[in-house]
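re: that complex we talked abt at group meeting.

here r the seqs, copy pasted straight from the sheet so there may be weird spacing, ignore it
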Amino acid sequence: MAARDNHGNTPPWGANFGVIGKPLRKVDGIAKATGAAIYTDDIQLPGMLHAKTLRSPHAHARVRSVDASAALALEGVHAVITGADMPIKYGVIPWTQDENALAVDRVRFIGDPVAAVAAVDEDTANAALKLIAVDYEVLHAFLDPFESLVRHEPAIHADRKEGNISKHVRLEFGEVDALAKSADVVLEDEYSFHGSTHAPIEPHCAVATFSADGLLTLWSATQITHYVHRALAQVLELPAQKIRVIQPCLGGAFGGKSDPFSLEFCVSKLAMVTGRPVKMLYTREEVFYAHRGRHPMFMKYRTAAQANGRITSVDAKILIDGGSYSSFGLVTTYYAGQLLTGPYDFPSYRFDSTRVFTNKPPCGPKRGHGSVQPRFAFEVQLDQLAERLKLDPIELRRVNFQGSQTRTVNGQRVTSNGFLECLDSVERASGWKKKRAKLPFGRGLGVAGSMYISGTNYPVYPNKMPQAGVQLKLDRSGVVTVFTGGNDIGQGSNSMCAYIVAEELGVPVEHVRVVAADTDLCPVDLGAYSSRVTFMVGNATIDACRKVRRQIVAAVAKKWAVDPGRVRLMPGVAIDLEDPAKALSTAEAFQLAEEEFDTLGATGSYNTPTLGGDYRGGSIGASPAYSFTAHVVEASVDTETGRIQVHDVWCAHDCGRALNPMLVAGQIEGSVYMGIAEALLEEHKVNRFGLHQGPSLLDYRLPTSVDTPELHALIVESLDPEGPYGAKEAGEGPLHSSIPALSNAIFDAVGIRMKHLPFTPGRVLELLREKDALEESKSAGAAARGQA
Amino acid sequence: MRLLNLRVNGDALSTAAPAHWTLLEVLRYRLGLTGSKQGCDKGDCGACTVLVDGKPVLSCLTLAALVEGREVTTIDGLMPAHIRAGGTGADPVQEAFDRCGALQCGFCQPGMMLSARALLNRTPHPTRAEIKDALAGNLCRCTGYTQILQAVELVIAEAGGAAVVPTDWRAELEQ
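got the structure back, here u go
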């Protein structure tokens, strides 16, 4: 057993926590509240240049030549770089590296970066961009994923074997067709999910310096410092030891800052060629084109069930519009199928997912990566099944519950599972039994459920080193400093580390300092994605704390000449459990331990156990724990205007244990808000030229405080056997089922099935008209039969 | 280039900037007051909101030259003003946002908190609908606004105005 296996849901002193489970402030809260927190664009360095990017006006074109001589001649311009300066490709997944920091010979979407300028100020850099002459040979642009499926010339990526197919995955488990044939009821339908984007309020920004002795330092608004570090070394052909990457305070990400981005390479290269610090800040329009948002998906589902509601067979065929680059697309294509196999148990399952390239801004991971879209389709189909079988939709979900400590049909291990409690919770809180199918026409309730990973056991580059590392430094004053590679993107991961240290080492939270996401100072962590941070960094922090805690307890026990089991470290004080009069301050306890054992510190780590199904791709979607969620939405539909109003959303989420319930509630509320927003208002769409239809926060329609429904966050604690004190994720799972629950509520309200997103008033009116026409023809038929 | 004589957070400051620079640019890149954030640079998001003579204004749409002679308050000035007025620590709005978990990424919140401060200065006991209306010009992408509304209501409650409605999760926790 490695030390990294040092976890479990109760600490040695029992579950009588002093810090964990309390709604405490965040460690960086007051700095953010007072404007003192430093975000990337707040960094101003002496002599700093400002950089801007020239972008492609064509969706698909060959770049014949770039002439920057006039730009270089402009007063105040210090450098212009093009693809020729950084020809090495990169990409977050090692097997599909197909991106260049600046176009080498091809541009693949409107907005693809072509050249970058560093100048004394932004105005000069913008003026210089207009002086760069690019000779393009315009190519056929693929804007319809169905076309990319069948037409492969001109290939968007010339070196791909399968033309414009980015990835194809087909996996089958159990007797899918035989079980469908023998089922009592079979439902087949089509669904589609539109594109949406993250829209963090902070645009991407990066600042680089290059020292005379060859050290490159990059500050970047990234959510994965470690991968940026690796990508810079590769593209800039610098030894990794000569690069330091720091993530300052980050203004939101939601998956949108997971890839390495063009600006990180450009400011680095420009700093190297000019010898000056360089900053680049994307405009809001550039953020929309940088994208990496939710993949549009076109989905066919066939679900078969017995008359009692038990699902016997699920068959899915999915077309995924990937946009112009691979990004995380390999994983997306797997996730679209792999993450559907809970919280319900079904004995057979097949999915066939194909991701294609199109000449649009590249898609990537957005909150609930790859699984929000299939979850929408499937949960709507389950509602259709309940309707067909005349079952209560909550009952249908209960009947199919997979249980805890089980294995899914695709071979994933499920440990804790609080899904039934989630269903109970939303049923009770929403008044489901009194209201569902009983409200006046126009108003209704809908339910849906989901599951999501708590981290993945698949590191994007294969290695056996820990996925999360933490280092502690204990000061004689009683201060503890935690060094973690984890990226706090607003979700509170730095605070989570501090709470754990405070709990374990008996120090007040305000005596814990967190140094994070700096590749020179912090042990490697794989970053803020796949909802992995609380689970993995939390476990690594516990591991480090337990090692040094043993020393502190031993030193105090020796001083008091008592058994170490009697020593309890409370916030600020060490006490003898059998003689409370004996007490030492934390600082005194640390000093005793330092006398006894030498300078105090420890490292801790976490790695996943061996997980996953025994087949190719079986480890993608394998997680050390899964979170579970249930939503009930109450909505009304105005049948005159087609306008949908969401009144209340109850979301019960099984997060294992809420290390800080206030922060968990914040994650639940933020997730639900984002789900409802993309269902009703938001759409990331390009027109027939590949131009974004509205690349601004106003046109994209981010909901305001007035547009957001009442959100009710309900926390379910299933105490996972392997999570830190039993904790699992809370940041992504609670988005999933909000969208199908809304669709199902609309059905309860007015009897129409919303199977295609977004739920616009136009679509509502169209379906209402169809329904009215159908009912009229039915009643006309009945009247005719009555007359006959 | 234009000489600007500004009053910011109680100080009379002079600086020079291109005539087309906005108040946001001058605050951030000339005066070093980086608490005000740029989220869109076109008046959509509200992250750059500052108070001019006590009223919330989008500093990214306001030419710096237009606020000469007027009193500008940024998020950086809120705590010092609270202390000057005899308080301790941060402004109660800032404290409440922190205590309620309203600061996730925190990027939109300087503008949000100033909008909230302006509301409470003119209406000490707003209803929830009035709070929502007052904050509708400030987009937040993290919180779903719930904890922000709770924070503003906490300020009102602690100032002696109203009872705080317990949150769903808190009610569950106490069960």
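couple things i noticed - Chain B touches chain A through 64 residues (CB under 8 Å). Chain B is about 40% helix and 15% strand.
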